[in-house]
Amino acid sequence: MTISASAIARTYELDGVSVPALRGVSLTIDAGDYVAIVGPSGSGKSTLMHLLGALDRPTSGQLVIGGRDVASLSPPEMARLRNETIGFVFQSFHLLPRTSAVDNVALPLVYRGLGARQRRARAAAMLERVGLGHRLQHRPNQLSGGEQQRVAIARALVTDPEVLLADEPTGNLDTVTGAAVLALLEELNAESQVALVLVTHDRDVAARAHRQIVMRDGVIV
Ligand SMILES: Nc1ncnc2c1ncn2[C@@H]1O[C@H](COP(=O)(O)OP(=O)(O)OP(=O)(O)O)[C@@H](O)[C@H]1O
Ligand SMILES: [Mg+2]
């Protein structure tokens, strides 16, 4: 699957003030790509990721995801496109607070027509792969920050996405756990052509990507 952005911009309206977070970005993500997005805080990285993940629409410019122009999609169509093709790891995780780790990870599979038992089994297997097989029944507030991050990564991967968009996926992980998570993502990239787009403040992580995109003040520099 290809994601193609042409001069996309995103302006937030906040209390009557326009905040131009993204000011014309063009880029293409193809199957098998491995891209790191870097840049200072507030430069528009998360805004760009939300657009690439069909979580939001550009204010102007054209965004085509898997051959479909997001401007032509209704909200349910965007939700379906996301569920079928995209895994998204939010900078702030967005886990359901009163729900166990295994049920958080199983949630995106509800739309796949799998029974509860199968969903749990797949979720448990994915949590195993991120090193959390011993924490299936813990709720997010019973998990460390790094463990919550790995639950969020498992939830993004459980649907076998074609593209994984991850906003600071190793930001809360120690060196060893971060390297293990990155190795898992790189294995999926190399063996299954899952496109990886990672936002990171870590130079070593960015250097592993095949391509680096540097953002500043809402544009690619
Ligand atoms: N919902 C919103 N409403 C208004 N302004 C917003 C909103 N979301 C982001 N912004 C502003 O848009 C700019 C870009 O924000 P964004 O979250 O994309 O930055 P970032 O590069 O991800 O930063 P960080 O490295 O701190 O995560 C910032 O100035 C931010 O304050
Ligand atoms: Mg951000």
TrEMBL record:
Cell membrane as UniProt keyword: no
Entry keyword annotation includes Transmembrane: no
Stored Pfam families: ABC_tran
CDD domains, per the entry: ABC_MJ0796_LolCDE_FtsE
InterPro entries tied to this protein: AAA+_ATPase, ABC_transporter-like_ATP-bd, ABC_transporter-like_CS, ABC_transpr_LolD-like, MacB-like_ATP-bd, P-loop_NTPase
Keywords annotated in UniProt: ATP-binding, Nucleotide-binding, Transport
Top-level division of the source organism's lineage: Bacteria
Gene Ontology MF: a single term: ATP binding
Positions of the ABC transporter domain: 3-221
Gene3D superfamilies in the cross-refs: P-loop containing nucleotide triphosphate hydrolases
PANTHER family: ABC TRANSPORTER ABCH.1 (PTHR24220:SF86), IMPORT ATP-BINDING PROTEIN (PTHR24220)
Protein name (database record): Macrolide ABC transporter ATP-binding protein
Lineage: Bacteria, Bacillati, Actinomycetota, Actinomycetes, Micromonosporales
